[in-house]
TrEMBL record:
<feature type="domain" description="Ketoreductase">
    <location>
        <begin position="10"/>
        <end position="193"/>
    </location>
</feature>
<dbReference type="GO" id="GO:0004316">
    <property type="term" value="F:3-oxoacyl-[acyl-carrier-protein] reductase (NADPH) activity"/>
</dbReference>
<dbReference type="Pfam" id="PF00106">
    <property type="entry name" value="adh_short"/>
</dbReference>
<dbReference type="InterPro" id="IPR002347">
    <property type="entry name" value="SDR_fam"/>
</dbReference>
<dbReference type="InterPro" id="IPR036291">
    <property type="entry name" value="NAD(P)-bd_dom_sf"/>
</dbReference>
<dbReference type="InterPro" id="IPR057326">
    <property type="entry name" value="KR_dom"/>
</dbReference>
<keyword id="KW-0560">Oxidoreductase</keyword>
<comment type="similarity">
    <text>Belongs to the short-chain dehydrogenases/reductases (SDR) family.</text>
</comment>
<protein>
    <submittedName>
        <fullName>3-oxoacyl-[acyl-carrier-protein] reductase FabG</fullName>
        <ecNumber>1.1.1.100</ecNumber>
    </submittedName>
</protein>
<dbReference type="GO" id="GO:0016020">
    <property type="term" value="C:membrane"/>
</dbReference>
Amino acid sequence: MALPKPSINAYAVITGASQGIGYAMAKDLARMGYNVMLVARRKAMLETFAQELHAAHGVDAIAYPCDLADSKQRQGLVEKLANTEVNILINSAGIASFGPFKDQDWDYETNQFELNATAVFELTHAVLPQMLKRKEGAICNVGSAAGNVPIPNNATYVFTKAGVNAFTEALHYELKGTGVHCTLLAPGPVREAEIPEAEQSVVDKVVPDFLWTTYESCSRETLEAIAKNKRRVVPGPLSKAMNAISAVAPTAVLAPVMGKFYSNLS
């Protein structure tokens, strides 16, 4: 099995394309010859990025500014996708919050749910019928290793990511034999290859450099996994360790320990 072949009429749609995993995957897909539709909130950044990808790789690169936490803007994108041949969808956009759930800003929490969960749900539904009709397509939803464990002080995030994890893996099995691939990307901590000391977070300083996954290596490993129609890809040593530990460690032991760590991030 392989990724759908690049086509002059088809697009790889990447949300969260202005930074992080989405940015890295958009660069790799354009390099591989795919036309790309870049989705994120920052219009100027997206337009510049689209121009760079077109100049470097000769592909058609569309900047589509959209706040995926806004239902009206999201519906506009759904309508756009209905009239676009989409052969790859990467649902990468996401945000997180830390600290006691009762103390969080409610608008931010509801936006987090809309972005992390509802957008994935709706965009996957928007492209799936056309992929099934063509018997070809690939969907990758970015969940998280954090979605494997109930983590205090990260409640809304793990709520959304646990849903994305289970939803994507369920679809993976539903779509067996259809020609459409559905893969869950469940990373742990991912970051830039190099971060100036002044910009390092508490996590950056605590976790040794060799354990981190870079956005670039995450993208490469994920695209390889999608091509092989893997159910779940967990890139990088720290992510793999987190995934293994969450599968065997008792929740009653693991959750309080992780919750204490996450309380320091708020």
